Amino acid sequence: MLEGRGAVENELSLLMPYQWEQFWSRIIERNIQTKGLYTKELISASHGMINEKQREFLQKRTWNIRTLPHTSLPMDQLMILYKEKAAFLFPDSALVLVIQHKGITSILAALFDSLYAFAKPLRNPWQESTSHKDRL
């Protein structure tokens, strides 16, 4: 998952809080692990975007989060890679583009992994503090 601040701001408004909780409950029950690459600014701003119950759900998920500054990752959209599918979500315009192609997802995965390798690990992204103690 590669996501910028603008995507989260718009994405969270698409569902009611209880619907997000149902969605995250399913991810937790299925133990779906998420490898995410976010901007530092998104992580900092996210604390004001979610309520305490949502924060608890996010903390229960299995995350492997890394961050880059917005200057290194200047995007506000969302990209999800899963098997041979790549989904691009543009919540501000309600546009979703899904590509199912092994070659394209292979290239996107290689680019994602390269960025991920240079990003800084973040152990507890959904806690209020993102101090040095939260970094690996």
Folded structure, characterized:
- This protein is α/β, with parallel strands linked by helices.
- 39% of the residues lie in helices and 26% in strands.
- The protein contains 5 helices and 7 strands.
- The chain has helices at residues 5-11, 17-29, 40-46, 52-60, 102-118; strands at 2-3, 33-39, 62-68, 78-82, 85-90, 95-100, 120-122.
- The chain has a 7-stranded mixed β-sheet with strand order 6-5-4-1-2-3-7, with helices on both faces.
- Strand 4 (78-82) and strand 5 form a beta hairpin.
- It starts with a strand and ends in a 14-residue tail after the last strand.
Largest sheet: 7 strands, mixed
Shape: globular
Pattern of helices and strands:
EHHEHHEEEEHE
Q: Let me know the average pLDDT.
A: 83
Strand order of the largest sheet: 6-5-4-1-2-3-7
Tally of alpha and pi helices: 5
Q: What topology does this entry show?
A:
Blueprint: E1 2-3, H1 5-11, H2 17-29, E2 33-39, H3 40-46, H4 52-60, E3 62-68, E4 78-82, E5 85-90, E6 95-100, H5 102-118, E7 120-122
Parallel strand pairs: 1-2, 2-3
Antiparallel strand pairs: 1-4, 3-7, 4-5, 5-6
Helix pairs in contact: 1-3, 2-4
Please outline what is shown here.
This protein has helices at 5-11, 17-29, 40-46, 52-60, 102-118; strands at residues 2-3, 33-39, 62-68, 78-82, 85-90, 95-100, 120-122.
What would the keywords be for this entry?
5 helices; alpha/beta; seven-stranded mixed beta sheet; 136 residues
